[in-house]
Predict the 3D structure of the following.
Amino acid sequence: MEWIFKPWPWYIGGPMIAFVLFLLLFFGKSFGMSSNLRTLCTICGAGKSTRFFDFNWKTQQWNLLVAFGAIIGGWIGMHWLSDEIIVQLNPDTIDQLHQLNIKSAGAAYMPEELFSLHALTNPKVLLSLSLGGLLVGFGARYAGGCTSGHAISGLSNLQLVSLYAVIGFFIGGLLMNHFLLPYFL
Amino acid sequence: MFKSEAASWFRIYEMFQFQSFHMYGIIGSALFFGVIMIQFIKKFKLKSVFGEQINIPDKDKSFYRYMLGGILFGLGWGLAGACPGPMFTLIGAGFLPILVVIFFALVGTWIYGLIMDKLPH
């Protein structure tokens, strides 16, 4: 049982994601996390401003439950199933991040320079997190899905358009990662 | 998500630097089983627990929305290091600044809804 407290290797995590996809299909649903963002907009009353949000959000309750499950899963993973929560990165990655002033690389789960409460007092961090969120939310809806909807469900269903979307994800991600990120950290 | 470290900003950074197989292994193995599963479901016309045939709708045929939306999503993914699923995981794990990311992801979704008719799809 020792292994359960260690970080799980990819060949555990990947098949577990496929199992979630199986469960959702088996219950006649689909796997797509970013749809929850649309549903949450509707719950907040966005249906009054535009018809895109004008639908009965109760039909999406099952998906909100999936998101709620992800929250619970995060809590259990953090509090019950971990003895160390340090991500073992490639040493080259750690060096690069140290040069970008992300000193917590190799010593934490998330970069403290971005995801600690203290970091939030830095206006630049606040701007980066806000812009990141804005792009993820806007892009996911424009592309009609996110990593779960396109890279997992869509590609599993051999949808050509999901391949376009995933190629787009990587064009954007590589552009940010290799050229723009230093300006945002 | 949390335990396989797919929710870690560091892992996303490392992935885009092509310095680890980890994230590719997660997505690749999920896909491997996903493709087999969906082919199996389609071939044998499996029914869901409710007795209806499992129907996986094809996505709309188009190019621009997927490529342009994908690139914007990717820019955000590379910056915030979290896609919508792990965002929820990170709330549970107690990394509260993710709430800022989620709030603005909602704002982004809402802006899309407002201007969608003016965008090329």
